[in-house]
Design goal:
The chain has 112 residues and is mostly helical. It is built from 5 helices and no strands. The chain has helices at 2-25, 30-54, 63-83, 89-94, 96-106.
């Protein structure tokens, strides 16, 4: 259950950040749409890690590993989400890779 809350928090914040970035970049073209989603999605991952440590859900010593894992998960998820923008469920579900990346990067024992 503790792992689930870490995955859900990072998933929701990353989705929100990517959607806001997508919306801000949309008027400027498809490339800026993708770059906006990447930029704000990345910031959302780092914010999620900060919140996880503040809520004491993640060991502070494992913050760097969690950040790297989350960013790697986002690097895998972003192109898949971009390629499937016509289906609303795939971009939403593929962002679960971010939460799983945080767990994998920090290590399962880092979750409190």
């Amino acid at each position: 259950m503790r792992t689930l809350r870490v995955v859900v928090l990072t998933w929701l914040l990353t989705d929100c950040g990517a959607v806001v970035g997508w919306a801000l970049g949309k008027p400027f073209g498809r490339q800026q749409l993708f770059l906006g989603g990447i930029a704000l999605g990345t910031l959302a991952i780092l914010l999620a890690i900060k919140l996880l440590v503040r809520f004491e859900w993640l060991n502070p010593d494992r913050r760097r590993g969690g950040s790297i894992g989350g960013l790697c998960g986002f690097a895998l998820a972003a192109p898949i989400a971009n390629a499937n923008m016509d289906t609303p469920l795939v971009p939403l579900l593929v962002m679960l890779l971010v939460g799983l990346g945080v767990i994998a990067g920090a290590g399962p024992s880092a979750v409190r």
